[in-house]
Recover the amino acids of this structure.
């Protein structure tokens, strides 16, 4: 097992090093300032940005830490609101096959819509770009949690529900001690997918609304033709995505159970 | 008035192949006195577990009804705890939490300490001290059913419903847990309705044994009294002349008499899983 792990790490590092070397070789032959920047240039930018992540020189010049914090704040608001709504609606759908079948067609139609398509409607109705971005995150993280919760609740073993009804548990206690824990693995699987799609959507949403956020940062640096910053931002977005997923993976391990 | 009255209960199921309905059993009527241990024995498919579920309130009768202390049963309730064949413990809860869930529900006015002490007493009673923090997945089938029994007894139900509680437990452990069941039942004298296909188990535990004919359209054929005095000890049971007589009677019924009236009179082979201990 450990031996296997060691080999995986070696191979993984080798692939990374080979990629960076090839990238460097490809870019070194071109004159500086033209074409894609090489890894050294990106590294230098990264060093600079990480040295001062939270500086604030006005609306068009903020540290990457501030930009990421702005994005994560939006993510938290939109994602938490969506997850709460999705779990509540999902439980209702999961417990009532009738309701599930009645509502499912609407969900199926709305689910494949890119969350950004809602943006004009939000901008028109609430006339605030920041809140519109949060609502885009809401739309992007609603469906996976909703579908998974409904599925998880609908497939709770009847025996557990029987025990709950024999014990005449109150509605809230039944929810807290039987329904949610029983469906927790499915719900968290949905939450994991949702946080991923919310993080994907936020970059695009912020490119549209401007102001702050990592998406706006990427677009702004593109306008400045600072491609090293763009590449570094891509890496930062990826790393944060991994961390978000890892946090939920931990939660999912805690809530898992074997029958 | 009887304590628990099964009043001409009939159950239909929708037919699995096409329209119409299948009658599982028809007009089953008997009553159980308070503190009595009654077991129903019959082949698979005679609907005995269905009848148990109807008493539990988990299923509705198609005809007739069940009356407990003068009130008709329409829904599940904590006064009728069920011990399930597949244990039905919450897998995300520990042993302690599983029992506590029931105790809390049964005694909503108790404070935390009193609930915890009560739970612990039943954990100890079934010999699970030290395993309180384990989850069901970490326990053997026998230990899981001990939790199931502790959960059921801890609420002091008016009626205890045992649905083939030992069917999924290996033969050696089964004896031990049956002894524990006898001990707890003797201490509290709950009214018990059990369903099983194990004839020896039925004789060891019951005051009366209800025999069902084969389904579909099963009927209650007869109810046999078990006159063997308590306390009954498994090892000494074989010496009892009543035991052999009863056992032969029930087995003969199951092999020959359990057939519908239109049968050809020859004994049908015992179905797989039918529990008969060879002598």
């Amino acid at each position: 097992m450990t031996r296997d792990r060691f080999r995986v790490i070696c191979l993984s590092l080798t692939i990374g090093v080979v990629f960076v070397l090839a990238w460097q070789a490809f870019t070194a032959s071109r004159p500086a300032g033209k074409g894609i920047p090489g890894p050294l240039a990106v590294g230098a930018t990264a060093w600079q940005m990480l040295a001062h992540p939270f500086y604030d020189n006005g609306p068009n010049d903020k540290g990457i830490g501030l930009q990421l914090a702005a994005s994560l704040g939006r993510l938290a608001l939109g994602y938490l609101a969506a997850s709460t709504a999705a779990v509540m609606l999902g439980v209702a759908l999961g417990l009532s096959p009738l309701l599930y079948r009645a509502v499912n067609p609407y969900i199926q139609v709305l689910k494949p819509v890119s969350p950004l398509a809602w943006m004009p409607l939000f901008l028109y109705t609430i006339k605030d770009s920041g809140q519109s971005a949060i609502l885009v995150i809401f739309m992007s993280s609603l469906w996976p949690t909703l579908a998974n919760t409904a599925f998880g609740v609908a497939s709770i073993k009847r025996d557990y529900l029987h025990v709950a009804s024999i014990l005449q548990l109150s509605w809230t206690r039944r929810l807290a001690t039987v329904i949610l824990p029983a469906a927790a693995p499915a719900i968290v699987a949905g939450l994991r997918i949702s946080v991923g799609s919310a993080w994907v959507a936020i970059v695009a949403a912020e490119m549209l609304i401007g102001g702050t956020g990592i998406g706006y940062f990427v677009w702004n640096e593109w306008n400045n033709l600072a491609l090293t910053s763009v590449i570094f931002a891509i890496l930062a977005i990826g790393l944060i995505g991994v961390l978000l997923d890892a946090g939920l993976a931990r939660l999912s391990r805690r809530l898992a159970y074997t029958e | 008035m009887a304590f628990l009255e099964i009043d001409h209960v009939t159950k239909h199921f929708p037919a699995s192949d096409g329209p119409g309905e299948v009658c599982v059993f028809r007009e089953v009527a008997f009553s159980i006195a308070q503190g009595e241990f009654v077991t129903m024995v019959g082949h698979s498919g005679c609907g005995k577990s269905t009848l148990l579920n109807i008493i539990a309130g988990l299923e509705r009768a198609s005809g007739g009804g069940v009356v407990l202390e003068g009130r008709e049963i329409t829904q599940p309730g904590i006064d009728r705890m069920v011990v399930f064949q597949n244990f039905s413990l919450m897998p995300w809860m520990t042993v302690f939490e599983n029992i506590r869930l029931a105790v809390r529900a049964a005694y909503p006015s108790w404070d935390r300490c009193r609930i915890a002490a009560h739970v612990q007493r039943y954990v100890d009673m079934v010999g699970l001290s030290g395993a309180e923090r384990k989850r069901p997945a970490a326990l053997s089938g026998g230990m899981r059913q001990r939790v199931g029994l502790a959960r059921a007894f801890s609420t002091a139900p008016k009626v205890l419903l045992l649905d083939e509680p030992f069917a999924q437990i290996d033969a050696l452990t089964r004896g031990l847990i049956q002894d524990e069941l006898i001990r707890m039942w003797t201490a509290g004298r709950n009214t018990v309705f059990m369903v099983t296909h194990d004839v020896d188990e039925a004789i060891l535990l019951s005051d009366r044994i209800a025999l069902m004919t084969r389904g579909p359209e099963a009927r209650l054929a007869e109810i046999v009294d078990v006159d063997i005095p308590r306390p009954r000890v498994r090892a000494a049971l074989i010496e009892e002349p009543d035991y052999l007589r009863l056992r032969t009677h029930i087995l003969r019924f199951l092999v020959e008499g359990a057939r519908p009236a239109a049968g050809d009179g020859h004994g049908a082979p015992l179905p797989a899983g039918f529990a008969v201990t060879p002598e």
About this structure: Chain B touches chain A at residues 56-58, 75-78, 80-82, 84, 86, 88, 90-93, 101-102, 105-106, 135, 137 (CB under 8 Å). The helical segments of chain B are 48-56, 95-106, 112-125, 141-153, 171-188, 199-205, 234-237, 241-257. The domain at 1-74+196-268 of chain B is CATH 3.40.50.300 (Rossmann fold). The two ends of chain B are 42 Å apart (CA to CA).
